[in-house]
Amino acid sequence: QVLPFPSQVVYNRVGKCGSRTVVLLLRILSEKHGFNLVTSDIHNKTRLTKNEQMELIKNISTAEQPYLFTRHVHFLNFSRFGGDQPVYINIIRDPVNRFLSNYFFRRFGDWRGEQNHMIRTPSMRQEERYLDINECILENYPECSNPRLFYIIPYFCGQHPRCREPGEWALERAKLNVNENFLLVGILEELEDVLLLLERFLPHYFKGVLGIYKNPEHRKLGNMTVTVKKTVPSPEAVQILYQRMRYEYEFYHYVREQFHLLKRKFGLKSHVSKPPLRPHFFIPTPLETEEPIDDDEQDDEKWLEDIYKR
Questions:
Q1: Prior bond to 66 cis, omega within 30?
Q2: Which domains does the chain have, with CATH numbers?
Q3: How many whole angstroms from its chain centre is CA 308?
Q4: pLDDT for residue 271 is more than 70
């Protein structure tokens, strides 16, 4: 059997960034295309000891290829432990929207009606479950303040203890890993374009993904994972969140700009849906740079080859 290249892909999915939707798609795609989808039932252990890292890397590396491994886990450096570095993919979203989705999901679950929030947070007291989001933010409850809000960056920074500390060090290391180890980091607000690029870059895994995603039956399944009882905080509370999450936003804007550069390089026009939870004016966003792309230096296939060689 001739293996596709790359034959080792890791999706270290960020919580509340559309990953359940993508995993539903991957289950269908793995049967259709015959790759090995390796998933994990561990959802609440993203930081690992050195021995746990070695054990997980060993288990992943011995999986039947071609494989796509997915788990909520901070970036793992396979080469540090003598393994072959896989190709990484991931998706992130607006940090405030991600935080709000997680806040209400932990309390009230989603439309699947499994009472899974009660199973996930059995020790949560009723007054905590019904804690008003504005009170949580304005009164500086631990759940609504740092370091709890420093969530997305560690998925890209890695397992180093400093990756958990909100600051420039973790931010810069996360950017470096995005550039050197991730084939694609998309943004959830433009999911259809993320899927189009994944199909282009990893056809053995994602060929036909957009057709499946747009299928009405699949959309019904996807709608069942929408968090319930979400409310929008006051403008004052959102501004406080924005200040507390300034490193998260710097990373998000960096990733979004890189994603838009990729889209333009491959001739994709934006299909941007409006954010469902908050008006744009709540959170200022930096102006995007429309830098020209010099396509003469390397063609698309050469660019992909260079990415795979990293």
A1: yes
A2: 8-267 (3.40.50.300)
A3: 20
A4: no
